[in-house]
Design brief:
Keywords: Disulfide bond, Hydrolase, Protease, Serine protease, Signal. The strands form four sheets. This protein has a six-stranded antiparallel barrel. The protein has helices at residues 3-12, 15-22, 237-240, 315-328; strands at 61-67, 69-71, 78-80, 90-93, 96-108, 111-114, 131-134, 147-156, 173-177, 205-210, 213-215, 222-223, 228-233, 254-257, 276-279, 287-294, 306-310. 11% of the residues lie in helices and 28% in strands. It has 329 residues and is mainly beta.
């Protein structure tokens, strides 16, 4: 089959079909993925309470940032921003002022994994406006360890239809930087779940990380200045499907994480959207098993755990997206 015919065939194939056709189930994923320089502190509490992570202990943590837009008129400057909370951090680069919009996970020199809803509302109109920031601990400071990369392409799942449907299905995006992102002591890659590997079990403890709110309540939370972490249990999916929990808002391609009541440690807060759920499956390597998708308004509600996109459900889509990117660009 000649190259042009192959391109035409891939153009009409679904992502899953593209994987099956090419036979590439495992591409060149980093062999040393998931190795962190430090193990997380065992005293971590919920992100809302602000358990600060040891600096650079989660080297795959990404801050997805977008410039604020200035509207000029005969009066004071009005800032329109892309966060749900007006209390956000901003940084100036040249003539642009950037804000943290969502978290993300570096899984490969060419790929960042994050949530599709982070790019709703016209935020994909100009992908060059986005930037990927790694090697950060302090959100509101420029650090010597941080690395900034411009975005080349954004691949949002083709069946992501929020907010047109009640369910937030297929809340997954792959972001490709302009240039490959090299590994360093402060920047590294998380592993994807192993194909055919062990499944997560109810009660298993995993970690969420991000700059989500440290002061929560019924109103929007305030972003943290430092990277936070929380250790949370996987909830049984049958329990999560109960009407008093999330009911039909959840599907098998999602993971529910956290405690059911206010006595336990609640889950991730607003501002952690797109960030990772990290688990160790009998090995020292950290695997990104979830992408923070949605949770209760105000971050704290009884019987409302946080919900993550189940990464393992989209392994074929991830592989196929990389294949399509390779052939078409």
């Amino acid at each position: 089959m000649n190259f042009l015919a192959l391109l035409l065939l891939l153009a009409v194939l679904s992502p899953a079909d593209a994987v099956a056709f090419t036979g590439h189930q495992t591409l060149d994923w980093p062999q040393d993925c998931g190795v962190a320089p430090f193990y997380p502190s065992s005293s971590a509490e919920r992100i809302i309470q602000g358990s600060e992570a040891r600096p650079h202990s989660w080297p795959w943590q990404v801050s997805m940032q977008h410039p604020r837009k200035i509207v000029s008129y005969a009066g004071p400057i009005v800032w329109w921003h892309l966060l749900s909370s007006p209390r956000c951090q901003a940084w100036v680069q040249g003539s642009q002022r950037f804000v943290h919009v969502c978290g993300g996970t570096l899984i490969h020199p060419s790929w960042v994994l994050t949530a599709a809803h982070c790019f709703s509302g016209g935020k994909m109109d100009n992908v060059a406006n986005w930037r990927i920031v790694l090697g950060k601990h302090w959100l509101n400071q420029t650090e010597a360890t941080q690395r900034v990369h411009r975005v080349k392409r954004i691949y949002r799942h083709e069946h992501f239809h929020y907010p047109h449907l009640d369910q937030l299905n297929n809340d997954i995006v792959l972001v490709r930087p302009v240039h490959d992102i090299p590994s360093s002591p402060y920047v590294h890659y998380a592993c994807l779940p192993t194909s055919g590997g062990p499944a997560l079990k109810p009660g298993q403890l995993c970690w969420v990380t991000g700059w989500g709110g440290t002061q929560g309540g019924e109103e929007n939370s305030t972003l943290s200045n430092v990277l936070n972490q929380a250790q949370l249990p996987i909830m049984d999916f049958t329990t999560c499907q109960q009407e008093k929990v999330w009911g039909d808002k959840v599907s098998p391609t999602m993971l529910c994480v956290g405690f059911r009541d206010l006595q336990g440690t609640p889950a991730a807060c607003q501002g952690d959207s797109g960030g990772p759920l990290l688990c160790q499956m009998g090995k020292n390597e950290w695997e990104v098993h979830g992408i923070a998708s949605f949770g209760p308004i105000g971050c704290r509600a009884e019987n409302k755990p946080s919900v993550f996109t189940r990464t393992a459900s989209y392994r074929s889509w991830i592989e196929a997206t990389r294949i399509r990117d390779f052939f078409f660009y």
